[in-house]
Design a protein that fits this description.
Radius of gyration of chain B: 14 Å
Structural class of chain A: mainly beta
Distance between the termini of chain B: 36 Å
Largest sheet of chain B: 7 strands, mixed
Order of helices and strands of chain A: EEEEEEEEEEEE
Oligomer: heterodimer
Radius of gyration of chain A: 14 Å
Order of helices and strands of chain B: EEEEEEEEEEE
Helix content of chain A: under 10%
Helix content of chain B: under 10%
Chain lengths: 114, 119
C-alpha cells in the first residue's frame, strides 16, 4: 500500500538558518508530490508540487523541493528561515492508480528560535 | 477567488447527536474532497465528488457518515449518532479536473476546516 513517511516529528532551527524537512514515499509508480503548510487551527496551504520534468521545484515563500526517484524522497528546503515559517508541514502523494485521493505524511512541526 | 470555505468552524456536540458540516469549494472547481485530521496526524481521505457524483469512498467512512453534493456546488458531510472517536478536524478541498484528467486534479486547495468535539 502507498505510504508517506516524514521521519522528523519536530524540528527546531534558528531564524536565518537553513532548513530541510524530509519526506519519503512508497508508491508503485511515478507519484505526484506535494508539500503543504498548516498554521495552528487553520487549513492547509499548498507550498509546491511536482508532477514531472525538472526534479527541483520552486514554491511560494522561498521554499523549494527536490524529487529523487532513486531515494524515493521529496525533501523540502529553505535557505534562510523566518520566524513566520513556524508551522506544521505535510508531505503528500497522489497517483493515478490509487484514485483521486492524496495520501499525507504525519507532518513535521517546525519551531523557529530567535 | 474567495477560496474554499467551511461552516461551522467549530462544533461541540454530545455523543449520540447528529451533526452536519458544509463546504463551499472554489467556484470553478468541479472536484470536491473530504478529509479527516486527528491530532498529531496528517489528513486522511474520506470521500470525493466530481460534480454531483460521489465517485470514491474510504473505508474510514462508516455507515454513520454521509456526504452529498446535490447540485455540484457546495457539499455537506453528516455524521449520525456521533461518537467520541469522531472528534477531529474535518477538512474540505477542491480541485479542477485539469486536462484529460491529468495530474492537475491532484492539486487540491483546502478550506480552514471544521473542528468537531464530541463530549
Amino acid at each position: 500500500a502507498q505510504s508517506v513517511t516524514q521521519p522528523d516529528i519536530h524540528i527546531t532551527v534558528s531564524e536565518g538558518a537553513s532548513l530541510e524537512l524530509r519526506c519519503n514515499y512508497s508508491y508503485g509508480a511515478t507519484p505526484y508530490l506535494f508539500w503543504y503548510v498548516q498554521s495552528p487551527g487553520q487549513g492547509l496551504q499548498l507550498l509546491l508540487k511536482y508532477f514531472s520534468g525538472d526534479t527541483l521545484v520552486q514554491g511560494i515563500k522561498g521554499f523549494e523541493a527536490e524529487f529523487k526517484r532513486s531515494q524515493s524522497s521529496f525533501n523540502l528546503r529553505k535557505p534562510s528561515v523566518h520566524w513566520s515559517d513556524a508551522a506544521e508541514y505535510f508531505c503528500a502523494v497522489g497517483a493515478q492508480e490509487y484514485g483521486n485521493k492524496l495520501v499525507f505524511g504525519a507532518g513535521t512541526i517546525l519551531r523557529v528560535k530567535s | 477567488d474567495t477560496g474554499v470555505s467551511q461552516n461551522p468552524r467549530h462544533k461541540i456536540t454530545k455523543r449520540g447527536q447528529n451533526v452536519t458540516f458544509r463546504c463551499d469549494p472554489i467556484s470553478e472547481h468541479n472536484r470536491l474532497y473530504w478529509y479527516r485530521q486527528t491530532l498529531g496526524q496528517g489528513p486522511e481521505f474520506l470521500t470525493y465528488f466530481q460534480n454531483e457524483a460521489q465517485l470514491e469512498k474510504s473505508r474510514l467512512l462508516s455507515d454513520r457518515f454521509s456526504a452529498e453534493r446535490p447540485k455540484g456546488s457546495f457539499s455537506t458531510l453528516e455524521i449520525q449518532r456521533t461518537e467520541q472517536g469522531d472528534s477531529a478536524m474535518y477538512l474540505c478541498a477542491s480541485s479542477s479536473k485539469g486536462l484529460a484528467g491529468g495530474p492537475m486534479k491532484y492539486e487540491q486547495y483546502f478550506g480552514p476546516g471544521t473542528r468537531l468535539t464530541v463530549t
